[in-house]
Amino acid sequence: MAASQPITLYKHWNVFSKAVIGAQWLFTKTGMGASNQFESAAFIRSKPGIKYPDIQYHFLPIAVRYDGQAAAEGHGFQAHVGPMRSTSRGAVTLASSDPADDPKIFFNYMSQDKDWEEFRNCIRLTREIFGQDAFKPFVKHEIQPGAALQTDAELDSFIREHAESAYHPCGTCRMGRASDPDAVVDPQGRVIGVDGLRVADSSIFPRITNGNLNGPSIMVGEKISDYVLGLDPLAASNDAPWIHPDWETSQR
């Protein structure tokens, strides 16, 4: 969104300001450089019938390309949004019998119709958020996708052109039973059919987690290390999350 007031981080989009912010962080570990600026976030449900949130938001007080290399058009702000439980599945496989060859990594993004539906929901819900009265003093106009894009086909074209990975792939050697042809490790992280080898990171997740991988990956490392050290695992706990009582009929 383009901002109607000059209150965003765009005022720092110059060499001098970047140098000052960088020096302040380098020498004092304080200031704007001490934050990644994604300090406002949200998890919401995309539609009725979804039990728990399947969309993740990050708000950024500047309109800038995802790789940070170019600002959009002056003062602005944006939401990074996407579905968390994609049904598309890729694969990491061997390219050949030569161990020096790079593996074949096939992400297979957006290969399911449900992914396209969820992304369209992401865009439309974001527009609804930015259309609230609280944003009216600050919104100038929609930069991307652009208010003219409204139909499913128009949004799909935009998604096809602009959707990016958030760099949190997981589950390439999923945990499961030895009889599961897609499983790579057992419940203690041991590679099935290989002696003396474990995997202790987000590769072993049997399904995509809600949200970023950092916390769950640390948990996996701690738990697998307990198995390696022969420590008794913590007692099982299956605490139930809060579920909206009207989740079947209401999106909020």
Walk me through the structure.
It is a single chain. By secondary structure, the protein is of the alpha+beta class. The protein has 4 helices and 7 strands. It has helices spanning 15-28, 113-130, 152-162, 214-229, and strands at 2-3, 40-44, 55-60, 78-83, 91-93, 104-106, 139-141. The chain has a 3-stranded antiparallel β-sheet with strand order 2-3-4, with helices on one face. It is globular and about 60 Å long.
Features:
single chain, 252 residues, alpha+beta, 3-stranded antiparallel sheet, 4 helices, 23% helix
* Helix and strand composition category: alpha+beta
Query: What is the CA-based Rg, rounded?
Result: 22 Å
Please tell me the overall pLDDT. Answer: 93
Strand order of the largest sheet: 2-3-4
Per DSSP, the total helix count is 4
Number of strands: 7
Report the β-strand fraction as a percent range: 5-15%
| Residues in helix, % | 10-25%
Describe the global form: globular
Task: Describe, in short, the structure shown.
The chain is built from 4 helices and 7 strands; from the N terminus they run E-H-E-E-E-E-E-H-E-H-H. It is an alpha+beta fold and 252 residues long.
Describe the protein's topology:
Blueprint: E1 2-3, H1 15-28, E2 40-44, E3 55-60, E4 78-83, E5 91-93, E6 104-106, H2 113-130, E7 139-141, H3 152-162, H4 214-229
Antiparallel strand pairs: 1-7, 2-3, 3-4, 5-6
